[in-house]
Design brief:
- The protein is mainly alpha-helical and 116 residues long.
- The protein folds into two domains: 79 residues, no CATH class; 35 residues, no CATH class.
- It is built from four helices and two strands.
- It has a two-stranded parallel sheet with strand order 1-2.
- The model has no long low-confidence stretch (mean pLDDT 87).
Length: 116
Amino acid sequence: VSANSYDEVQDYVSLNRHSVGSQLVVVNSDTWEGLSADQQDALETAVRETREEDRACIEEETESIVEEWASNGGPEVVEDVDVEAFRSRARDYLLNNLEGRQLELYQDIVEFQPGS
């Protein structure tokens, strides 16, 4: 939000966590299949840990930006956001509109999320 200077053009910012960074790791299927189960597990663990560290950095930066806006008269920050309502609507839409490989990829992404 800060890097895009949204504070210059809007009066309100909702902290809905719709975008908290992404780490795209792409591995050729032949390469993946050439890894042992232990190596695959190690790579998946490293990706999850890196994502958690990245999200922690983003959360820290967000806190800093919100504090700066509060002290400098920036946009009003709305923190009481019903995130589950957003997730539920998006989930319903995607499950009802994706097909074939797109649906499989969506399900893979959901499965790989923390807490799943």
